[in-house]
Amino acid sequence: MGKSDDSIQRRKNKKSRKKQDDKVSNRIAGIIAAKKRRLSGKRRMCEGMCYSLPTPEDPFNERHGKVDPVKKKKKKQNQSKKGKNPIKKTGLPQNSDKLKEEFHMHAPSKFLILCLKNIQDDLQQDGAFSGREEKPFFIHTWGIEFWKYFTSGKDIIGTNQAHATTEQIAWVAATTADAISRKEKEGLSISNPYLLFLVPSQEKAVKVRKICKPLKALGIHTVSLHPGASIDHQIQGLKNCEPEFLISTPERLQELLSHGAIKTSDVSFLVIDGPLSETGYVDAVESIAKSISGKPQILAFNDCSNSSSNFLMKKSVGESICRIPLDDPVNDHNMA
Which region ranges are annotated with the description Disordered (predicted)? Predict the structure, then answer.
């Protein structure tokens, strides 16, 4: 007896339902098995990837997100012996503030070095050093010695020569500019000339101003006063500016002081270039020095004449005067 179409179709439907039931049961069984493995802590590698991500320390996730046990670091034993201070990289004892202060005092600032570089670069462009050996100004021995005594507040006599050289003028200008910069950082304003540079002639005034001129880009203005220009023109010019550096011959400065065109009462640093033994020169310098209130720091270039030494001794009552040879400085200078 042949099977009807309905019976055949029923058999097919029954088989298909059985397959679907087997699939569902297998899926459910897989879920249950996975849950048991998670509860027992025995997951497969592929399942571990689902719960943790690779890290730079474990790029292939071989640790399955587990962190390595932290190793205890051994404390470094202090090798310094009792009774001795530990030494820093600077070579100074940790608790010695005085030595630290002295160490920093004998290290010129970056601004001072920048001033020297600007001056030297400008002079080289003008051909001022043609035909002579060029060395960086900041390694000039006299300049370093001068800077150390200037920062200590001492009056200074440059011996062996009567006039300052280019390198010495550059160091004076750069050191004074650095002092002004430090004052301004402390909140002090400089309205009157801070540096008064007295020169014996118009030619020397022009030379000193040329050396100081590159500092204008750094905020230091210089004015030169000498008989080569009319006094009315100089009076008008002084009304329109407040220079930090004032370069002048003593005679012309006395005329301007008598007209009230400029004030030198707040000058902090007085530089005297030229021998004070010349007739009338020392009297004019002393007259100008009396117009300065307080006690300015003094640097004098001279040929060891008695008049210049006596003048500085009057201004430096009770204090020592540092003597720095102009051509061959030594490490240990005598104090007068």
Answer: 1-29, 52-94
Distance CA(332)–CA(334), nearest Å, equals 7
CA distances from 161 to 57, 60, 275 (A): 72, 80, 9
Q: Residue 216's pLDDT is what?
A: 93
The rounded distance, in Å, linking the Cα atoms of 104 and 84 is 23
Residue type, 75: K
When mean pLDDT is compared across 25-34, 79-88, 190-199, 237-246, the lowest value belongs to: 79-88
On whether the pTM is more than 0.70, the answer is no
Distances (CA, A) of 150 to 53, 146, 204, 335: 66, 6, 23, 14
Report the 10 Å Cβ neighbour count for 37: 13
Domains and CATH numbers, the chain: 100-325 (3.40.50.300)
Contacts 24+ apart (CB under 8 A), 241-245: 242/191, 242/192, 243/193, 244/176, 244/177, 244/180, 244/190, 244/193, 244/194, 244/195, 244/220, 245/173, 245/176, 245/193, 245/194, 245/195, 245/197, 245/212, 245/215, 245/220, 245/221
CB contact at 8 A, 223 and 238 = yes
How far is CA 124 from its chain centroid? 24
Taking the CA atoms of the chain, what radius of gyration do you get in angstroms? Answer: 42
Give the side-chain half-sphere CA count within 13 A for 103.
12
Residue 87 has pLDDT above 50, yes or no: no
Over residues 155-172, mean pLDDT: 83
Count of CA atoms in the C-beta half-sphere (13 A) of 115 = 27
CB 61 within 8 A of CB 49: yes
Q: Tell me: the pLDDT tens digits for 16-70? A: 766 665 555 666 777 777 777 777 765 555 554 455 666 767 766 666 656 665 5
Is the Cβ–Cβ distance between 278 and 165 less than 8 Å? no
Residues 6+ positions from 181 with CB-CB distance below 8 Å: 111
Neighbouring-strand partners of residue 297: 269
